[in-house]
Amino acid sequence: MSLSGDAGWLALRALVAAPGRSLALSAALGIAFGMPALTLSAAARAQQALQHRARETPVVIGAPGDTFDLAFAAMHFRPGGTRPLPWATLEQLAAPGVLLAPMHVVHTADGAPVVGTAPEYFEARSLVAERGRLPAVVGEAVAGASAARVRGLQVGHTLRSDLEALHDLSGEAPLTLTITGILEHTGTSDDNALFTDVRTAWALDGRLHGHGSLRADETLPGTTRAHAYGSGAVLPADTRPDALGAFHLHGGLAEQPLTAIVAFPKAPRDRDLLLDRIASADGIRAVRPDRVVSELLAIGHRVRDGLLVFLGLVGTATLALVALCLDLSRRLRAEETALLRRLGAHPMLVPRMHAIESATLIGLGLAFAALMTAAADTALAQAMTP
Question: What global pTM score does this model have?
């Protein structure tokens, strides 16, 4: 057998003789090598997802307030955190060359955000129903592909909206949503939401509701039959076709709230004209999601760079500890190596044996790092893909 073969066989026997030590050192090296790679991979995947959605959302219009809340409410349907915008703003900004899609994102149903919008949103996003149809009247909803799959929704199923506060007896009762369609898979946040007509979102607010008759055991003593009616803000909202005629809007249409308006200009000139009109108007503002995401990513890059420095220091310390363990192992085996020399072994046998042992541990560590990174990246991709 050659010198390298002998050294390799002895190194392998040494590693097998202490399996716990070998596995522990390989795992330590794998974590030291894999964490920086995983950090870079996760940052790149998050950046790609954020930038892709931002590029598909040219301009978001809303009331003055937090920029990030407004942008993420429009892009990823995060309820809350934004001031309402009156419907009159939509009519005020309407112009040729710009497609305006109203959005009202406040409520949820079985944990999924309920997005009140208009046909313009489906047109601008190229959203089509894979099964069924888009919502047409109050109480109808179309489910994103993932929202339907997770909840087992099919066309014709019904879903109750979530209560905002169980202790608030004066609040709006749950609204029954009828699933009229399932959207095609898009790989975006649209897959996780339920889309309704904006009037349905106002019904969830209690601004649009009907009145139903109360049973005798639900009325107060002394109440006459002529007054035995309840507000839709107290009774469970019934959205059957025969009950929709009793629904009415409290307040004028112009003052009804919107979370945001997503503008889809047809050309850069139309976008610039829209931004100029918004800059000269009071009480509204325009947000460019691509710039918002760029600012967010700039912060994320600084965090990532700091984390990489920290992981580099941890990795260096890990490598030093592994080297210390290997040196200690060599010292403990000094009598064995001395015996090999006395038996006439080649002078380079022992150094090469130690080198092969170290290289094998590093190779196992790299393999462990590759497996860990691949598994974590796959899990991250599944978590980030609707």
Answer: 0.71
